[in-house]
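thread: overnight batch results

M.L. [08:02]
morning all. the overnight job finished for the chain we discussed friday. pasting input first so we're all looking at the same thing
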Amino acid sequence: MTARIGVLNISDRASAGVYEDTPGQACMALLKEWLTTPFETDYKVVPDEQAVIEAELKRMADESGCCLVVTTGGTGPAPRDVTPEATVAVCEKLLPGFGEQMRSVSLRYVPTAILSRQTAGVRGRCLIVNLPGRPKAIRENLEAVFPAIPYCIDLIGGPRLETNQEVMPVFRPKAG
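M.L. [08:03]
and the structure it wrote out:
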């Protein structure tokens, strides 16, 4: 069975065609680099509108059957940054450790990482992870949390995701 992964870029300007969706493309490149499990991508760019983001997260998790949805953008303190609110609204369980780890890693690079509000949570059999909106920060943040993502997906009943252990080692507890 082929896994499905959602990539959702939240950006008023990219959704209006003002500029290219480089954050979403950066996520796609990392997933292709790290995963050895065959997967299909459900990819979308939407504006910074909470109702639209919520609807898309629900669609990707419930209808499209994504085991993982990564969002890019909309995680700062600006008035239109509502990605974390949308994520919290659609998730049954929150996983605050994801945001804590991403902020911790980002603080090594920029003092403004404390302004980031990324979070993660579970909806059904789907893990939703908020990432920042810049490709460099997306790599830094996703590298920091991805080692736990396949096991999390195992725990929530999703498909088994395998990675190229040389470029993205993941952790699964030893049986027994």
